[in-house]
## 1
Amino acid sequence: MSSTQDADFSSTSADASLTTPTQASSLAKGDHILIQSQPCKIVSKATSAPGKHGHAKISFVALSLLNSKKYTDICPAHHIVQVPIVTRKEFLVIDITIEGFLSLFDIHNPEVTKDDIRAPGVETEVGQRLSKLWVKATEGGEGEVWAVVLGTMGMEVVDAVKEGVQE
């Protein structure tokens, strides 16, 4: 009798992994990479010529998707790096709470609202745009506000906001 017959696999999921392995040389500016356990978007990539040991090195400069901090990493071009799995979804903003959380409506799943995503701070470009569009939509009655939410590594953040027009 094997030990797997007694194992319970009922709680596994097809998306159990939060990252995928990828060769460093195949990544480009705009791709995602995991640096110091932070999911990041690559803003700069430089490749050095092979050194005396025959391996080219790649230098990455990237911004964290979660807090916009700058991270750098240098690794051999043939090295396998971890790339975070990132999802992007748009939600209609229906409220901004006093505590600073967004109340979001998913038009593809109208039974559920999302109330656990913190609004970006007003010191950020996204936060300033959200404030401006929210005032315009609520006080002026002009249009709708849509939030673009990135999900990665079990966390979600507002990456962008945009204006929509009521139909």
## 2
Amino acid sequence: MIDAAMVSVSGDAKLRQRPAERKGSTIDQTILSPGTVSINVQEAFIVDEDPSRPPSPSDDGVQHDTDIRLPNHKAVVSHVALDIGGSLAKLVYFSREPDSKDHGGRLSFLKFETDRIDQCLEFVKRLQDEFHIQNGQKSGSMVIMATGGGAYKFYDEMKKVLGVEVLREDEMDCLIMGLDFFITEIPREVFTYNDADPMHFEEARADIYPYLLVNIGSGVSMIKVSDRRKFERIGGTSLGGGTLWGLLSLLTGARTFDDMLKMAEVGDNGAVDMLVGDIYGTDYGKIGLKSTTIASSFGKVFKMKRQGENMAEDLGGLSHDNEEDGNIIPSSQPTFKPEDISRSLLYAVSNNIGQIAYLQSEKHNLERIYFGGSFIGGHRQTIQTLSYAIDFWSKGEKKAYFLRHEGYLGSVGAFLKRQPRNWGRRNSFEEYPVVRPTIQHRVD
């Protein structure tokens, strides 16, 4: 097991400088032909202080996730990768270690709200400037690898603002390539959850097929992966992260997804949901249902509102002090806390996704189920709910697998697309600067 260094990286440290390399060197040559750069991921590890604590966004709304250290990489990397979804834009880029004499560097991971794509592009422009300073090359030599729907929606804007080549890659291709890389190459990346061991890390492994990828973004896609180049979308649901975000913004007034998750952490869904215990007064052990099992999401709301209306009538009728569009609002309406609503809706969306994922895994005979996408965000309640759903419906025969960089599958896949065919595979490691002509081409 590789011993991961315990280092925190602030947002300001994301843009790094190093002295320009000597002209005529192999590194200079790779800048001119970026598609032939071999990036060495041997002995890669995640740079982190506390893997069980999800990162928090900075004041500007940008979330800086944990970096991956590449201690043995020596060549220049002249591209960045963007996965632009309906809600979030995910950025991956390589940078050198600050004030370091060795040639190592790191992959850095950032999230931006898609509605603030200008902020994301401004950050990439800063990376261009740094690339220019470090390597003495014109900024146009940097390439943007883009995937997701936003790669098409914002294509013209990216070219106009950044003035560089933008290469668009297929979203599903990138998701699978990114996930394969994390599963096979990065230690302490993949983990399972249970109450006794909330973060049990899985060893990086090569025998990973077949498996089911459940990618949860604004919506949900479920993909059966049989091999590196053989996969198909077998299902999904429109009830995903965008559903949670949209409904909670209406019901609670929360302005960011992070605010919603924070409220869900302290909420009590039992104040909103109808539980098995509310119906039976205890567990329903015969069919394996605990008293805390949700029988009906938001099931108490109607009942409590009716009770409030009846109470108002008993106290002398309805109040006409609050009227809106002709609708009379009872004076004794029950109130529901935003925190409780947030937790209830989070459970409703997560449970639905978990059950559909299990059913798809059964239909296609898939034992391993990987959950990815920015909806998860390292959030304990989400991970716990998805894990419980898979364990419950499979009677303990299947496991839910999670990733610490679950939101970056597509952007990492797009990043890999700029590399030779065997980039990131252990059998492709070689001493720099040896380059084998047989792998000097891009993977399309």
## 3
Amino acid sequence: MASADEQLKRLTDPSLLDKIDGLRELNISEYIPLPQLVVVGDQSSGKSSVLEGLTDLPFPRDNGLCTRFATQITFRRAEKSSVIVSIIPSPAADSTTKEKLRAFIIDDLTLLSGDEFITVLSKVTSAYTYIIKED
């Protein structure tokens, strides 16, 4: 049996994490449980504080820009810092809406400071709201 250190190394292996993310993007998690951490709770119950503690990113707490929709954050150790922001559409969305949501990408950031994170969340929220209202 593998030691706790060996098990941890396997669980944090970048190639394994990339495979899990690929499966999640293919919506395999609908059929097979994939590892993830989910934070849920009532309004003002501390979800943003938990996420801040895990990510070191300041989650906004105002009515229009807080954690009202699912937010997936994936961190990886890499030689070069990069940030890619996208919208993953619901499997239940129609094909036109899925296409429009997938077209939203921000990929010109190398680091994500607190202010930039709030700006990015604002852009995502605006784009999502616009696309959903449009369709």
